[in-house]
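Entry 14. Ran structure prediction on the chain below.
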Amino acid sequence: MSPSRNTITLRRRIYARRIGMFAGLSALTGTILLGGPTAEAAPPTPPSATTARTYLGQLTVKAEGSSDGYSRDKFPHWITQSGACNTREVVLKRDGTNVQQDSSCAAVSGSWFSPYDGATWSNASDVDIDHIVPLSEAWKSGANSWTTSRRQDFANDLTHSQLIAVTDNVNQAKGDQDPAEWLPSVTSYHCMYARMWVSVKHTYGLSVDSAEKSALSGILNGC
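Output, structure tokens:
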């Protein structure tokens, strides 16, 4: 027998009351619950090793340029992406598990696995957002001639494989080194890292030096 109209109305009122209580609790604690791991987006997938090898062959090979005139301020970041959330906060949410953010979009809980070193962190302050192709490296590879707007797009690119959450001191140890000078300590991640690096350089038309190309070629050939 179908439920009566009064029964349906009552059920709707109970459901609405429960939703209201949940919203009130969120407002009281200052935490916006944005879903569990199944609701979280994944980082952009880089091209396959085969495609990356093709892209690598298309890159201009030239000696690395000068760092004269370089400043991180010439690559404005982190910019606002949506509402109160800037690029760092979007990537923390995207790359973490069970991440909860407060009303200003700051991550207040969650966990982050760093593929560079295999470490897992439960405090967002232990995590940096790494530019796969560092800003200084980009400057010396052609970004010195870009407009500030293009450099801003590069520094905040969520569409390509340019940003990833990793252990802060590992990111700092990487600095502006290219794959001929630095690779993640987790060797099983080298193929992914090379694919990401080549994808970004190809997308933005950046050059590679001979040692960098040789290192990338060796990695991609072993994928």
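Residues 184 and 190 are 7 Å apart (CA to CA). Will compare against last week's run tomorrow.
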